[in-house]
Amino acid sequence: MSGNTPSVTPEVMLAFYRRLYPFKSIFSWLNHEHTPTRLFTHREFAFTLPGDVYLRYNSFNNADELKKQVCNLNPTRFEIGPVYSARPKDKKTVRPAAFSPQLRELVFDIDMTDYDPVRTCCSGADICRLCWKFIAAAVHVLDKSIRDQFGYQRLLWVYSGRRGIHLWISDKEAMELTDEQRKALVGWMTVIQGGKEMHKKVNVRQGTKPLPPSIQSSMRFLGEVFTNLTLGTQKCFQKREGWEELLRLLPSGATTSALRTQWDEGPQRTSAEKWNTDLGERYAALGPPEHDIMKAAIEDIILQYTYPRLDAEVSKHRNHLLKAPFCVHPKTGRVCVPVDPSSIDSFDPEKVPKVMDLLDELDMVPPTAAGETGEHHSDWERTSLKPYVDILDKHVLSLMEDVRQRKKQEPNMNW
């Protein structure tokens, strides 16, 4: 996804914040209740202003205060941090020991650039529908794994506006995780590790032992992804560079040598033929223990090319800041919208609303009864942004229901 996008000017951003940004929905999502609680009043907001000016430790009493300050500062973007033991705006007046992060959504960040070694259609900041399928596969795997393995249910997926996706988990138990617990959790879920110099990036078992059950449960789905995406649309083993990388991941020996000779002599063979026919036939002919060694290598290769690639540092610390949903990406002009994981396969990042288009939509709509001088709290309802805000509002209803249920069980609950 590249191309010439008109620059997002300060005037455009101010109109977006005044008329379209869903401050009330964001407030309800962070607060979990209608009336302000510490979940919002002690929450850090950080603003990025033109010229790379960065303002941290802002906090607000309600949605109106947040909107007023955002419209006053007109940031290029703003980020959301943890709930602190004191109001972040009072940080300079409280003792350092009395100011620490207490609660924070468990967050994950998946960036398309981490898939550069396994995609052929794009690289760097570019993204298209073909390589977006890597992100879609990651959403399928992570959404199911997190629900099944950890029992979390309040997951909000948000498109980053350009080449990635964020996950915010708002279950009470997730909010209360310590940094040590977050580090352990993300370590458990990290499968792809190692820098550019390391060819084999999957080390999740000892020798030829079976994969951990948490990973094995995803293998059938990932096998289909590998067939359709790695072998199909991406054609990862079509060119010499691609098949040499594959050979480096296979156990060294006669099989690997024979495959290299075959592919050097017949480079026109497709990725699917190299994998299914050439490698497949030699794999089937192996006896123990070579068969078991090759089986483990093949599973690890499928994982290396398809398993979610997490930016672990984002998830480990409660004080990490993450871009707020519905911000506008300055390079693309696209809004960072929530995504329904059940329809992630049909999600097209190129069709996400751009801020200029949304403002054009508003100009086509007759003025409200309040007149053009009235407050614009829900003008998004009259634009193509509405279905995305609806996703967030539906998520908020679940959070509020959780709070109501806990209050029934714990009448004196004060989170």
TrEMBL record:
Family: Belongs to the eukaryotic-type primase small subunit family.
Class of the enzyme per the UniProt entry, highest EC level: transferase
Listed GO biological process terms: DNA replication, synthesis of primer
The organism's taxonomic lineage, starting at the top: Eukaryota, Fungi, Dikarya, Basidiomycota, Agaricomycotina
Enzyme Commission designation: 2.7.7.-
Transcription recorded as keyword: yes
Pfam annotation, one family: DNA_primase_S
Listed name of the protein: DNA primase
Entry superkingdom: Eukaryota
One function term, GO molecular function aspect: metal ion binding
RNA-binding in keyword set: no
Single GO cellular component term: alpha DNA polymerase:primase complex
Keywords: DNA replication, DNA-directed RNA polymerase, Metal-binding, Nucleotidyltransferase, Primosome, Transcription, Transferase, Zinc
